[in-house]
Amino acid sequence: MAEVSGALIVQAYEGVVLVQVTRERLLDAALISAIGAELMALLERYPKPNLVLDFAPVAYLSSAMLGKLIALHKAVQAAKGRLAIAGLRPALRPVFTVSQLDRVFALYPDAQQAILAFRRHK
Amino acid sequence: MNEEPPETTRRWRPIIHRRPWQAPGAVVLQRRWPTSGAAKQEAIAVLAECLLAPGWVSGDERSWLELCLDEALTNAMLHGNEGDPELAVEATVAIDERCWHVGISDQGRGFRARALPPEDDPASLLLEHGRGIRLMRSWLSALSYWRDGATVVLSRWRADRSRDG
Known about the structure:
Radius of gyration of chain B: 15 Å
CATH architecture of chain A: 2-Layer Sandwich
Oligomer: heterodimer
Number of strands of chain A: 8
Largest sheet of chain A: 6 strands, mixed
CATH architecture of chain B: 2-Layer Sandwich
Helix content of chain A: 40-55%
Shape of chain B: globular
CATH superfamily of chain B: Histidine kinase-like ATPase, C-terminal domain
Structural class of chain A: alpha/beta
Order of helices and strands of chain B: EHHEEHEE
Number of strands of chain B: 5
């Protein structure tokens, strides 16, 4: 199944939900709020998701977006699902390191490796 | 620079001066924007271009620059001005021999250092807010507060100057 909605493209296949972020800039408060709501709504559709967020196109990110990712992380954990973040550009990696979120999120070089990791550890 | 860079310890707390900020060196831009999401995006674009075009910030640092500007402007508009579209933020870009400085002032009352979540508290790790200052501090050479916190000043070594020179 594939769907396009705002800044996210969602595909679910064989137990993995792949969410591709399509925007380069995640700085606008209204956009971040919309993305946050859309991500949380995924948990209603996929109650125990293996969720991969593909950040490959993202070049600019604010701490508000990090807050949405943490909220999603907590919700996925509560639902006994799994969350991985894939495709972070080298320039964005320090944002996660500095805020120590590399200790919270499973980070993968690309979406394919994240999906393979989920399938390896079912 | 008129302010020593802050220590990068995990117990860092901002020093908040009561007096107004005096821009060091030459002021190259001074401009006001209303409090709104669109104005914030425009301010980021204008301020980033002001620093990137002369080479004071290198192109490969653009994402960090925009992140810091976004965090500072968001704090000024959302917390300082409490989102009131009638209130404005004023940005001043100044340059001296070694550093560039961006001062961002809001029309709020400032804040107290103890209102910030402590960085060394493990419980802060999963908070959904409160990371902006840490992120800014990690890239900037100095982050200082003036007018009881209603002005924040972002400072960093110029990319077109040697730090030793």
